[in-house]
Every structure is written in structure tokens, then in C-alpha cells.
Amino acid sequence: MKPVLSQPPHVDWLTGAFSRTPLLRKTTRLADLPGVFADHSGWQQADPQQIVYDVEMLDTLSGSGELFTGVTHLYPGKVGNEYFMTRGHFHALREQGEVYFGLRGTGLLLLQDEQGEMHLEPVVAGSVHIIPGYTAHRLINTGTEILSALAVWSSTAGHDYAALAGGFAWRVVEENRQVQVREVQNG
Ligand SMILES: O=P(O)(O)OC[C@H]1O[C@H](O)[C@H](O)[C@@H](O)[C@@H]1O
Ligand SMILES: [Fe+2]
């Protein structure tokens, strides 16, 4: 039998760039994130075309049992004093977890479960983040460089953005040149 060598995709661990492979790309701009940042007038005054994050995904099999792999590149920036972040989501299939691997930059992974329990994990090159099921997740770039993280998740997990339409319970802002976590006041 003749052995068959198929070239797997390659990722540059320093930048998160994939090469030699078909990719799916999604760009999220400020205009795509109404109501996400606390400072509404700051958001309105900012350039709506400003890219907040790019996601590059391997174009792989989907369906029960299959895994998706992607890299999120989250740009540095702020709206008002709030750092650029991903929209964040629960999985539509709530029990599905996900793994993030920090590749470059500095930031935080904000985790919020269905009971409203919150955690923050520092994201740096080499950090490994086990996101349990039933837990919403959002990346926040608190640094001055691109924050890139590789993610692996179930292809059937899906996204539930509506469940967090009211936002996460914590916001991460810069105050006095320091990263501060603020609890959102309801009502
Ligand atoms: O879907 P968002 O909250 O905008 O986050 C952007 C992306 O981040 C990660 O790469 C996740 O694995 C993706 O499933 C998600 O779509
Ligand atoms: Fe996810």
C-alpha cells in the first residue's frame, strides 16, 4: 500500500496567521457592534469602518462530532474608556465548551455563566483557556498590540448572541492608565 501524505494546515504561532489552506474570514467593525460598548456617543463618533476583530477559520467539515478551528485577531483600541472586545456569546448548544490558546498580545477572557458568575483570565502567548459549557465568553484587548487567540470548538455549538443582548455584567475599562474592571449597574 502506498502511503499518502496530505499536508495539514499550518499556523504561525507568533502571529496566528494560517497558510496553505482554504479559509473562511469574517471581519467585525465598529458599525457591527451597536449597543455593545457602554459609551454610546463615543461609539457614534468613532469611525464605523474601524475593524475591531477579524476571525479566520479553517474550512473544515461540520456536523455532529466535527470540530471548528479559528483564530481571532482583536485590534487594540477603545470606545470611550472601554477596551475593544468581541461581541461575546453563549453557545446555542449550551453544554458545549471551547478551548482558546493565547498566541500574541495582552488581554482578558471574560467568562460569565448562566447564574451570572464571572471570571477573568489573562490572555498572553501560551495561555490555555478551557471554557466550560454553559459559559459565555468574550475576548478583550487591554494592550497596545493585536491580541490573537486560536480557538477550537464543536461545529454544532452555534452562537447565541440574544441571551446576552443586555451585555455582560462586567466591563473592562482604562482608568488612570490602568486596567479596571467595573460592575455594570442595573436599573
Ligand atoms: O462570535 P463572537 O463573539 O463575535 O466572537 C468571534 C469568534 O471568536 C472565536 O473565534 C470563536 O471561536 C468563534 O466562534 C467566534 O465567532
Ligand atoms: Fe464560542
TrEMBL record:
Transmembrane feature ranges: none
The protein's name in its UniProt record: glucose-6-phosphate isomerase
One Pfam family this sequence matches: GPI
InterPro entries from the UniProt entry: G6P_isomerase_prok, RmlC-like_jellyroll, RmlC_Cupin_sf
Positions of the Glucose-6-phosphate isomerase prokaryote domain: 29-184
One BP term from GO: gluconeogenesis
Annotated Gene3D superfamilies: Jelly Rolls
Enzyme nomenclature, EC number: 5.3.1.9
Catalytically driven reaction(s): alpha-D-glucose 6-phosphate = beta-D-fructose 6-phosphate
Species for this entry: Trabulsiella guamensis ATCC 49490
Pathway: Carbohydrate degradation; glycolysis; D-glyceraldehyde 3-phosphate and glycerone phosphate from D-glucose: step 2/4
Keywords: Gluconeogenesis, Glycolysis, Isomerase
Enzyme class: isomerase
SUPFAM superfamilies: RmlC-like cupins (SSF51182)
An example molecular function term from Gene Ontology annotations: glucose-6-phosphate isomerase activity
Recorded family membership: Belongs to the archaeal-type GPI family.
Domain of life: Bacteria
UniProt key word DNA damage: no
GO cellular component: cytoplasm
